[in-house]
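pinging the channel bc i need a second pair of eyes. not urgent but kinda urgent?? the chain im working w is below, pasted from the shared doc
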Amino acid sequence: MGRLNFVKDSIISSGEKQYVFEGIFDPDLELFTIAIETNFGSGSLNFDNISLNVINEDKGTIIPLVKKMVALNQLDSKIDRRIIRIFKPQGDEKFFEEELKIGEIITQTLVPGIKCIVPLALYGNEKHTYPIVNESRVAELIKLAYDSWPKDDQGEFKISGADLKIRLADLIILYNALKHSYPYWDDASLNADEIWSKSILRAFSDKTDQDFLKTLKWIANSLNDGHMFVDLNGDSNKDIATLPLLFDVAERKIVVKKVLDSGLIDQVKAGDELIRINGKKPFDILRSTDSLFSGSAQWKLAKSTVALTKGKKDEVVHLNLKRTNQNISIDISRTYPYSEYTSGSDRNNRGKSEWISKDIFYINLNKTTTEVHMAEILKAKSVIVDMRGYLNEDTETFLSHLTDKKLTSNSGMFTPQILYPDYQKVSYAIGSYTIEPALPIVKAKIFLLADATGQSATESFLSAYKQFKVATIVGQPSSGTNGNINLISMPGGYRFVYSGMLVKNPDGSKHHLNGVLPDVVVKNTIKGIKEGKDEILEEAIRLATEDK
């Protein structure tokens, strides 16, 4: 979808100003999106009275979109979006193939001895459903809800996770949304009722908004979904840092993978075993850090090793290391900016795409695209494609150059069509795609590098290439998280993101948590780490060399 008269550079002044965006769109357009995106360091953007004026044959129809004032406040990421989607009317066309019928009800036991009976379908017209409710009673209920919100001495809303009522309200919102629409309950560590009861107890014990943030992260951890994350508006990592060291797990030991500070290279070496962090066993800290993340075991490990030494910026951390038979004791300050994610290619110093030998070309899709390097790819006998991380291109782009015939497949993505509560009797719309061959056709052997840092779109890429047998995957299982996401915004500034789509491998086998499995498995070794080797890449080079 294109942008119509997009003039972001003009929205730079303070004060009120009216903006008009004009353009012509296809009459068959099914979805029209208006997006407001801010990228500012401080302050806020307020907007109101947004409307869409559709002019057809000199007749105008004005559709009000936003009537009341809406504010976009500064986020830690400095990016905020509000998106309004307008769907083309479909007349009497069904939303889903299946429909609820008048007379269908649900009967649910709330507590022993008390049940609720709720109709799932009602008669109605364009204005209301039947029976018509008493509008004054509804107004009273809304006012009562409004008056019950916490306020400060000036009568302004004071909504924070430090308030028990807000914490309980958020859990009710979250519990109902997840129970209704989360597709992977079978893979959760606890069932819905266990999570509900334990999170309620935690909420009563929590005192601050940060305490409750940890409770929400505990919920996410229990649900095992790599898409899942929780954040708090205004929360910042600016005072959080890590040691300038990257760690990895090899042969059941935590070892230094990479030294990021040149001033430490004479004191700390790749391959040094981590024995203690401030007197604590590193695996105990790793397990504790693991509890802050959600997803598969391999995804949690990838993120936990990055977060292993995170804490207050510039604080000194005491490490005990072991190098062969030498014990090393060292104090290091947390000076390296903390990021939850580091791609597998970055962990192995893989940056630019380049010739490995006169016949083997390496391309890093975290940094570039196959289109940019098509000339080199066409000359190579073997191409090694690094997919350890997030990609810069979609599945079809390169795949279309690897086939001389049309390829058709289901995408493995099942969009739930939810009519009933608690994710019961769910049907699915199954996605599919077709790849048309594109010139020039690439004749080189293709090797794909994979590990747990490859997630979502990367996994679509990997699973398609595996299905059509056009490449050999070398490395380790991918993250095991694909599909689209749902977002829940809750009072107090909390946001909870989770997978909304059920995803399987194209052959119907399980993808969630398992990931895309490599054809050739490569495990990290302490010897390889000490020698600074990228063992996954080296195995691909060996295979490519033997395949000549």
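so Residues 1-10, 39-43, 67-84 have pLDDT under 50 and may be disordered. and Residues 164-232 form one domain. — does that match what u expected or am i reading it wrong
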